[in-house]
């Protein structure tokens, strides 16, 4: 939850020469040190033994007084300023916030304190200091067991910020590996939350963790019987167990219609899982999980993304999620022979989608080259170097997947594709242009089968692509 800084609090009026001369302002800002001391002092009072004793055994949540909420929210706003963040660090504010998180049963106060720490962690020096505090690290990971969605969101945002700092990322990866409750808490959120914003941020944390540490990913893949962490419950029913793939799938289903960025994150998590054999097996060995994964991704690529009426430029915003989807589908497809329960839908709609992606890439490339602005400024349909990099990845994954499908096509499937239009001459030509010369064996295998179904079309394609000759 990002906020714009509020107006300076009372007590630091720029016209008050005495305050300015006395050095009451924080750094180059107009925020008052004395006012901030007062707010932090109020927080200290909240978590002192005297104020906490009477309610120490009371699990009931408490409300935050309106005046205190307004003041601490103002600190939250102010903490986005580096001078204020450094001042909070100097005043040992993280220790105060740690005390609040450890003792307070007020969800709103806990959310705000984690939010302030998240803002402070955006500055490298402070991020390093926060990360190196072992006690604070333990308390923050415990916040992932919280039942309050806003607190969970701010905790996830803070973790992602720290994991994105190369200097301290390994510290947090170690802590996560040492605390099995983190796995269970994250799986619980992914499998049960309907809060899309929270699901996206938690997904980003998982994606970053897996990208940083393959060993941790393997541990989570194998950790299929983790128990739910301790949390308030209304009954004593047996706690559920979690496997990572079904939890990721559930979260992906929840975000798919509301947040493309979130869907991109979760499909990329699935792609990362397929980079190790244990991950592929976790997807395909269970009949339900294998089918659910295939059906979700198949439905996305065949019925939502890159549809016939979509302009080619839409590929720019879909490129990364499509690359992840095709990569996972390809990995599942390669396991069909080994897993008989993987009775996937027909390949022809996939061929149609893959060829359409390749066609749209070619159209985008031609428009970019022919744009009149290309010599003076970047054309509207041309991406950055990073966009070009991701488009190249999508092209490579699409070609590899298409070549695998081509090599497995039967006469019956080719005949149906010709009848339905998925394997027209124009579409086959587009596919060949992308597949050759790297995937010549796949094209040759396809031509062999095509010759048995439609010899004239096979010969036309051979004439158009002389390098391809069916070995008869």
Quick structural summary:
With 472 residues, the chain is mainly α.
Using DSSP, what is the number of strands?
Answer: 2
Give the helix proportion (percent range).
55-70%
Strand content: under 5%
Count the DSSP helices: 25
Keywords:
472 residues, mainly alpha, two-stranded antiparallel ribbon, 25 helices, 1% strand, elongated, disordered N terminus
Tell me the layout of helices and strands.
Blueprint: H1 17-21, H2 33-46, H3 49-52, H4 66-78, H5 82-90, H6 93-103, H7 107-120, H8 124-132, H9 134-142, H10 149-163, H11 169-178, H12 180-192, H13 196-212, H14 214-222, E1 226-227, E2 241-242, H15 244-255, H16 260-273, H17 277-284, H18 287-303, H19 315-333, H20 348-370, H21 385-408, H22 411-420, H23 425-435, H24 440-453, H25 455-464
Antiparallel strand pairs: 1-2
Molecular structure report:
This protein has 472 residues and is an all-alpha fold. It has helices at residues 17-21, 33-46, 49-52, 66-78, 82-90, 93-103, 107-120, 124-132, 134-142, 149-163, 169-178, 180-192, 196-212, 214-222, 244-255, 260-273, 277-284, 287-303, 315-333, 348-370, 385-408, 411-420, 425-435, 440-453, 455-464; strands at residues 226-227, 241-242. Strands 1-2 form a two-stranded antiparallel sheet. Helix 10 (149-163) runs parallel beside helix 13 (196-212), helix 13 crosses helix 15 and helix 15 (244-255) runs antiparallel to helix 16. The longest helix is centred in the last third of the chain and has 24 residues, at 385-408. The radius of gyration is 28 Å and the shape is elongated. Residues 1-22, 53-57, 225-236 and 374-381 have low confidence and may be disordered.
């Amino acid at each position: 939850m990002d906020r714009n800084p509020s107006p300076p609090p009372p007590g630091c009026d720029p016209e008050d020469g005495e305050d300015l001369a006395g050095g009451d302002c924080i750094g180059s800002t107009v925020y008052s040190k004395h006012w901030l001391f007062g707010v932090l002092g109020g927080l200290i009072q909240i978590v002192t033994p005297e104020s906490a004793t009477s309610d120490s055994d009371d699990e009931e949540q408490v409300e935050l007084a309106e005046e205190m909420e307004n003041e601490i929210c103002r600190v939250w706003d102010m903490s986005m300023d580096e001078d204020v963040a450094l001042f909070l660090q100097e005043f040992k504010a993280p220790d105060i916030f740690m005390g609040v998180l450890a003792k307070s049963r007020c969800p709103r106060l806990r959310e705000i304190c984690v939010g302030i720490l998240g803002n402070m962690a955006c500055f490298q020096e402070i991020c390093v200091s926060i990360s190196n505090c072992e006690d604070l690290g333990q308390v923050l990971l415990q916040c992932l067991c919280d039942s309050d969605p806003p607190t969970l969101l701010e905790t996830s945002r803070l973790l992602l910020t720290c994991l994105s700092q190369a200097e301290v990322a390994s510290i947090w990866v170690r802590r996560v590996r040492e605390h099995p409750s983190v796995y269970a808490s994250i799986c619980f959120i992914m499998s049960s939350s309907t809060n899309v914003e929270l699901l996206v941020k938690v997904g980003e944390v998982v994606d970053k963790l897996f990208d940083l540490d393959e060993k941790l990913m393997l541990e989570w893949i194998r950790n299929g019987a983790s128990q739910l962490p301790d949390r308030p419950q209304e009954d004593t029913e047996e706690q559920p167990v979690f496997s990572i793939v079904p939890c990721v799938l559930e979260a992906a289903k929840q975000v798919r219609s509301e947040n493309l960025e979130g869907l991109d994150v979760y499909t990329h998590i699935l792609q990362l899982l397929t980079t190790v054999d244990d991950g592929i097996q976790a997807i395909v060995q269970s009949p339900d999980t294998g089918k659910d994964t295939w059906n979700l991704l198949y439905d996305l690529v065949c019925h939502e993304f890159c549809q016939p009426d979509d302009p080619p430029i839409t590929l720019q915003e879909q490129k990364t999620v499509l690359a992840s989807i095709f990569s996972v589908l390809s990995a599942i497809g390669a396991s069909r022979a080994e897993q008989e329960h993987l009775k996937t839908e027909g390949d022809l709609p996939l061929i149609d989608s893959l060829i359409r992606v390749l066609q749209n890439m070619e159209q985008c490339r031609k428009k970019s080259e022919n744009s009149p602005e290309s010599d003076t400024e970047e054309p509207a349909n041309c991406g950055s170097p990073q966009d070009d990099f991701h488009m190249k990845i999508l092209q490579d994954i699409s070609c590899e997947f298409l070549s695998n499908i081509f090599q497995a096509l039967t006469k019956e499937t080719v005949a149906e594709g010709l009848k339905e239009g998925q394997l027209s001459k124009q579409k086959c030509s587009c596919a060949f242009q992308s597949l050759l010369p790297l995937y010549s064996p796949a094209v040759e295998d396809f031509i062999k089968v095509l010759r048995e179904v439609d010899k004239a079309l096979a010969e036309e394609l051979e004439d158009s692509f002389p390098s391809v000759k069916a070995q008869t």
